[in-house]
Amino acid sequence: MKWILAKTKINEQNFKNVEQELGVEFPSDFKDTVLEYNGASPQNMIYDTKNTKGRVAEYLLSFSSNDKDNIIDTYNMIKERLEKGLIPVIRDPFGNFICFNFSKEANGELVFWNHENNDVEYISKTFLEFVGKLYD
Q1: Which residues face 79 on adjacent strands?
Q2: What's the DSSP call for residue 68?
C-alpha cells in the first residue's frame, strides 16, 4: 500500500506516549505504518463497511502533538460521543472517523464511526485487512 503526504516524522517514544495517554496498545501493523507514514493519506482511499460501499479514508490522524488533526486533540474533542473503547485513527472528508474498537468483545477491530448519529459500522478484524481492502 502506498501512502502519500506524510506529516511530521515521529519516533517510538512519540508513539508510546500517545498509547499511554489513550490507555491502549495499538497493533504492530498499525504502529509500523504510523512510524513510517504519520498523518499520511492512502493512495487508494475507498473502502466498504459491512453496511455501506464507497466510504473514503482521507488521512491517518497524526501522532505528533505539533500537527493539526492529531490523535490526542481529536480524541479529546469527540470522546464524550464515542462508544467506550473506540479510538479514532483515520479521518474521512465528512467529519467521520475510522476507529479501533478496543472493547473486550471487539478485540481491536476497525469500525466506521458516523459523527452525525453515532452509528458504528464494522470494517475489518485488523488494520492490515483494512489496508488490503482499500481501492481506487
Answers
A1: none
A2: T
CATH number for 3-133: choose from 3.40.50.460, 3.40.1580.10, 1.10.510.10, 2.70.70.10. Answer: 3.40.1580.10
Q: CA 119, CA 116: separation in Å to the nearest integer?
A: 8
Tens-binned pLDDT, residue by residue, of the chain (136 aa): 798 988 889 999 999 999 999 999 999 999 999 999 999 999 999 999 999 999 999 999 999 998 888 999 999 999 999 999 999 999 999 999 999 999 978 788 999 999 999 999 999 999 999 999 999 9
Phi-psi region of 70 (alpha: psi -120 to 50; beta: other; left: phi over 0): beta
Sign of CA dihedral 63, 68, 71, 73: positive
The cell for 62 is 497524526
Place of cell 464511526: 113
Burial class from Cβ neighbours inside 10 Å (0-12, 13-18, 19+) for residue 93 reads exposed
Query: How is residue 74 written as a grid cell?
Result: 481529536
Look at residue 77 and give its three-state secondary structure. helix
